[in-house]
Design brief:
The complex is a heterodimer of chains A (277) and B (316).
Chain A (H helix, E strand, L loop, with lengths): L1 H34 L4 H4 L14 H8 L3 H32 L5 H13 L2 H14 L7 H5 L6 H12 L3 H9 L4 H9 L4 H17 L2 H6 L8 H11 L4 H21 L1 H13 L1
Helix pairs in contact in A: 3-14, 4-8, 4-11, 4-13, 5-8, 9-10, 11-15, 13-14
Chain B lengths: L1 H19 L2 H32 L1 E2 L7 E2 L3 H7 L2 H32 L6 H13 L2 H12 L5 H8 L14 H26 L3 H9 L4 H12 L1 H16 L3 H6 L19 H11 L3 H29 L4
Antiparallel strand pairs in B: 1-2
Classes of the chains: A mainly alpha (277), B mainly alpha (316).
């Protein structure tokens, strides 16, 4: 009896804490959503009214008429798509080689991969800028996705773990069937590591979709901006229409929210993996 | 005799060399080549260049000019450097323990057979997956000095309305509050993974010994998840010291970078200082010196944490 009562009360406190916390997480988003559906007069009213009198759904249509919002969206999609594709290909290739193949300097190279993870990006950001300047790639989207195509350490690490967990027999039977290492990697092993590929894809998607530092360094023309910095740049243009900016910001959240809803378990496994490392 | 031995070793070496570059070896090198390029072009090269720039005058228009320790001397005589260093430290001191504590609290609360567990977890992840731009507009709905909900609430309670991010005293605590709000779901999941590794038998044994909930938490849960706590603290210290996006976006830097850093540079952190010097004023050498100082501080902090962990982290 005593155990059960303790159990119940711990559970009740658990519910209370987690419910209050969940409300704190979500309520600001609801408030912003309501703000995005107000008229300007209502948006700036003092004292504020939480729920707008009449939902101005047209605010969302207005966003597309002002500024380069469509350009920003297209740029964000392009950068994110190329980054995800590049990360999937490069991280799986490199991860496979580290997990399955013998080649010179393999161990030293892998230690270097781990070492790269420890280098704060801030130390190398200025030389990166110089390199892209030399390559005449400033004010283009290329610097934003090129590095993802060259295998980022975290993705390599994750893919290596996945490839290592596959039994050796698969490799041997592939060899007997006359597969070269690339064919073994592409045809036999790749389909077996789909969950880790999903994790890499989602991690890259989220980083690139939300990235602010790199685009703010590499891009100067407004029509080249990606969504996060594009929306910020509109603050001058939309002065007096702040409710549109809230609508624009919330719209930029939709793609990542959809990905999250469909792939929640990969999000979580990604974070737990990063924790166990 | 001697020469014979030499030729013998050299034949062994060449056969070994030939064996090293087998079919598989060639494929291996080919498949890791993306990372090889990455490592040489975008890691080693930049590290060397950055170190060189930090000892040079460099404005990007003219070739770098060796200046010895000039940048570092200037840095250590610059009040703004100390201010940004202090702001960074202040941010970290408030942020790191608060986030770790709340993440643990939430993970413990969630680590039971609750209904709608997935829904709860999702609610905590919405801020995690939002960009700082989205967060800025969402937070503005609450903390806008003129028409935000928070001031409305304060007025209703009969209290003074605040200027929030425009207030020199409030800007960092408020940024920390928002950072915790955004990041705690992430750390909560890391803690959940740690909690799931605590064997249930230990709790059962303790219950037989008559230990209460608090006693069990103190003598079983806390020591057993101390490696996770250590990880959470190291990870969040590292990210905090490199925090840029939040402060850039939330304190007005997006419109004009020279404006970034809050009222009277009250939230100018090291990364923002670096960005401002490098990319607005084109003091690339000076900015590189800031980067290396930041690197050294982070390195020392991590060493300190690794050394300190012996006292409180238990590995079984």
């Amino acid at each position: 009896m005593k155990v059960e009562r303790n159990f119940f009360s711990a559970k009740a406190i658990g519910y209370l804490i987690i419910t209050v916390s969940a409300l704190i997480m979500v309520m600001p988003f609801v408030t912003a959503l309501f703000n995005s559906l107000k008229t300007y007069a209502e948006f700036t009213a003092v004292p504020p009214r939480w729920i707008p009198e009449l939902f101005q759904w047209s605010n969302y249509a207005e966003v597309f008429k002002l500024g380069n919002f469509l350009d920003y969206t297209a740029n964000s999609f392009l950068v994110t798509f190329l980054s995800v594709l590049g990360a999937l290909l490069s991280c799986s290739m490199v991860g496979f080689a580290f997990a399955r193949l013998k080649f010179p300097l393999k161990n030293i190279l892998f230690v270097m991969v781990l070492g790269t993870m420890m280098i704060p990006p801030v130390v190398i950001i200025i030389p990166h800028f110089m390199i892209f300047k030399q390559m005449n790639l400033l004010d283009t989207l290329t610097p934003l996705w090129l590095l993802e195509c060259l295998a980022q350490p975290f993705g390599i690490f994750l893919m290596r773990q996945a490839f290592m967990s596959i039994p050796k027999e698969y490799e041997e039977s592939a060899k007997l069937d006359g597969c070269n290492p690339f064919q073994t990697y592409w045809r036999i092993f790749m389909p077996m590591v789909r969950p880790s590929l999903a994790t890499v894809a989602i991690f890259t998607f989220m980083t690139k979709w939300n990235e602010i530092l790199a685009p703010s360094i590499y891009l100067t023309s407004n029509e080249k901006f990606t969504l996060p910095i594009g929306i910020l740049s509109l603050s001058g243009q939309w002065f007096g229409n702040e409710q549109y900016m809230v609508a624009a910001a919330l719209m930029s959240l939709i793609p990542i929210l959809i990905v999250f809803l469909f792939a929640e378990r990969y999000f979580v496994s990604n974070f737990t993996n990063s924790g166990i490392k | 005799m001697e020469s014979q031995r030499v030729t013998q070793t050299s034949t062994i070496l060449t056969t070994k060399k030939r064996r090293l570059l087998t079919h598989e070896g060639r494929w291996g090198l080919l498949l890791v080549s993306p990372y090889l390029i990455h490592f040489i072009v975008f890691v080693v090269g930049p590290l060397i260049a950055s170190l060189y720039f930090s000892f040079s005058q460099y404005d990007m228009l003219n070739p770098p000019n060796w200046a010895g320790l000039e940048n570092y001397e200037k840095l250590f005589n610059e009040p703004l450097f100390y201010k940004s260093l202090w702001n960074t430290l202040y941010f970290a001191i408030l942020f790191v323990p608060t986030q770790a504590f709340l993440a643990l609290l939430l993970a413990v609360a969630l680590n039971q057979k609750l209904k709608a567990l997935k829904l709860y977890r999702m609610a905590h992840f919405i801020p995690v997956i939002s960009s700082w731009t989205v967060v800025m507009y969402v937070v503005d709905a609450i903390f806008n000095p003129r028409f935000g909900m928070a001031n409305n609430f304060l007025i209703k309670l009969g209290l003074e309305p605040q200027r929030w991010l425009n207030d020199e005293q409030l800007v960092i605590p408020l940024l920390v509050l928002v950072a915790v709000w955004k990041g705690v779901g992430y750390m909560m999941v890391i803690y959940l993974a740690g909690l799931q590794n605590v064997p249930n038998e230990l709790y059962e044994a303790a219950e037989i010994d008559g230990a209460g909930t608090i006693k069990k938490f103190k003598s079983i849960t806390l020591p057993l998840i101390s490696p996770t706590t250590f990880l959470v603290i190291v990870l969040s210290t590292i990210t905090t010291f490199q925090a840029f996006e939040q402060i850039y976006v939330m304190t007005g830097g997006a419109a004009d970078i020279t404006e970034a850093g809050g009222p009277n540079d009250a939230s100018l952190v090291l990364m923002l200082y670096l960005y401002r010097e490098g990319f607005s004023f084109l003091h690339m050498g000076y900015a590189s010196a800031i980067a290396w100082i930041l690197f050294i501080i982070l390195f020392l902090l991590t060493l300190l944490q690794l050394w300190g962990q012996k006292k409180w982290v238990h590995y079984n």
